[in-house]
Structure formats: C-alpha cells, structure tokens
Fold Rhodanese-related sulfurtransferase.
Amino acid sequence: MKSEPKYSLTLNIKPSETEIAYEHFMKKLSFETDVADLLIDLKKGYSGITVIDVRDELSYQECHIPQAISMPGNQITEKTVEMLSKDQVIVAYCWGPACNGATRACAKLSKLGYKVKELIGGLEYWRKEGGDVTGTLAENAPLYWTYKR
C-alpha cells in the first residue's frame, strides 16, 4: 500500500485568498484574449476590434490572419499608428507563446493611448486551432520564427 506524501510541491506556496485570486485573474483577462474568442468575434463580423500582426513584413506577407493589418512592432511610433482608432480594441499577435513581440507592441500602443489585448499563443496557436490564414504561403508558411544567418 502506497502512503500519501507528506509534502506537496503544488501547495508549497499557498493559494491566494479567493477575492485576491479573482482580482488577479480578471486583471489578467483584461490584458489578453484567446484564439477561440477572437475567432468567433471575427467570424461574427464584430467591428470593435482591430487585429495587428507585429511580425516583420515578409512573415506577414507569407502568412497572417486575414483581417490583420501589418504593423511590425519595431516600427510602432506615434506617427505610424495614426490610422488606428482609439475607439477600438487592438488585438496584437506575433509568432507564438515563445515570442514577446506582441507584448512589446501592446506596451508601446498602450503608452500611446490605445486599448490593447495580446492574442494568447499568437499565430502559432491561431493556426493550430484552425483559424484561417492567408498570404503567399498561407498554411504552408513556417510555423515558427527561426534565426537566419
């Protein structure tokens, strides 16, 4: 007979009080959205969202979410975002969960006064969860960014 362990790695740090946990998770949700929610909103034609692809222009040309506009993160400035509406929520994405390009873009955009959310999992999860893509390579495009020498 196997005895129950006396120590739990999971519970080594106690969980938060329920009210604090609720505030944390609600705040987290205010910063991000998932593929399913965005996919449904775009399929329904919801007009309160602008989707931006913050990867480089070539990657965008090869494969992107059909409704997305290209706005490479390293080119986001007050001047380059003038055409974006501050009345809409901007959903930014990059390659995938190992890429912080969308996080950086959201930081820049929020500093400029835009309401933003980051797409959890980026284009990688969008494609894995069956979201449509378009571009010169579309679904045949590389799934991940790779360093080219």
